[in-house]
Amino acid sequence: MRAYELMVIFDGDLDESTVQQGINRIHAQITEAGGETATTDKWGTRRFAYEIDHKSTGFYVVLEILAEPGALDRLENTLRLADDVVRHKLIRLPDGEAARRGLMGEQAAPAAAEA
Known about the structure:
It is built from 4 helices and 4 strands; from the N terminus they run βαββαβαα. It has 115 residues and is of the alpha+beta class. The chain is globular.
């Protein structure tokens, strides 16, 4: 498995229960793809540096995910089409960073030792 970090910015006009439903939907798709969510960090509503789609605020959520390569492609497509998501970004964490965060455990330790 590989470690990923997913940042999702929901529409700032949504209430928190609607955002939570979106988060639950993301968790379900990760589980369905055979992955697991290690952490979910809600940053809350923040002001954008510039307007995006005529909106000035968004609700930020950051998830740390463990999944096989390619398993999150469907999730990314869903987020790209979702009306309540303003922006999202999925990145693969380098093995050393994943080990530092405690996501990979012993699996990434040799790679971190080589660096």
